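Changelog-adjacent note: as of this version, every example in the card shows the full chain rather than a window. The one below runs 355 residues end to end.
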Amino acid sequence: AKPFLVATTLATLLLATAALASPELEVPRRMQRRLLLIDSFSVVFQQYHAIKYPMSTKAGLPTNGLFGYCRLLMSALEHIRPTHAACVLEGGGGSVDRQKILPTYKANRASPDDSLNRQFKHMVPLAEGLGIQSVSKRGHEADDVIATLATLAADTDTFDSITILTSDKDLMQLVSASARVRVCKPNIKSLKDIQTAAFGEQEVIAALGVRPSQVADYLALVGDTSDNIPGVPSIGPKRAAKLLAEYPSLHDILHAAEHTEPKAFALSESLRKKIVEHRDIALRNMALVALHRDLSLDSMPPTTQLFDGPDLRVGLGRTKADAEERALAALEEYEFQKLAKSMEKLRAGGIYPDP
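Full-length structure tokens:
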């Protein structure tokens, strides 16, 4: 065994040396793996309200939100070039765990109008036509499914990048220091310049004044009006950021407020009293805003095999030719002629790998 090991190692060294000397002889490289996670309801909702002009099929199906959704998916396939992807949906039945904690959670949200509701129903077949799997978990929010997938992917340490397409600031919790997990807001028509569209660690700090690992602590203090979560009284974004600059987490803030000498507490004595008085609100909020990262996913393989099979591969295991034909058929079904022409151009770039 030892002579074989030495010979193998020597052969590898000689091959690497030869590759440096001769550009024609290259050491094989591992194919890059890139994961794209799409917060589908968030994207369609945003695109529906961004595209003001009326769009519909000949049969009368409104399609402005679906058109923007599809346009961004195609832009992501072109510019991010994911090898794996998932369109993540709300699971239905509401967020059971969070509504138990706060019955008025998200109660301030108006029901989508009929035009938008009709388009939501077509997100799954449209994404499937483009070769992207749709994933959900009944009784859980899309944010938690995205958090589970992103955490699993990061833990495998086999992905070169993980990109999240969303307009939800809650998902900034997932941004990593190495920027392998990026939150990209879909308020643009194209993702051509992914660097300027993406939120890495520095962009999160610039936007909120805290590190990604502190986003949940920050939201627990200030609340989240979009989810009907009231914050701790007297604490707004600036005070929350200042507190988290002094103390690394909500737990440390509460501990300091309860055990530090009054004059030694950061900011002010009146604020310290407020924090002690409303301690339960802060802890409740933390339970509401912290993402769940360990869900089992409906109709999907076990988590240990999730990224090995065709389920989350772009193209869903189809041949390159079949994936391209199905994508064109989906675009034509929804009468997106302009996007169908764009897809014809993208075919030359090979956005769908052979399985």
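Structural remarks: The longest strand covers residues 34-39.
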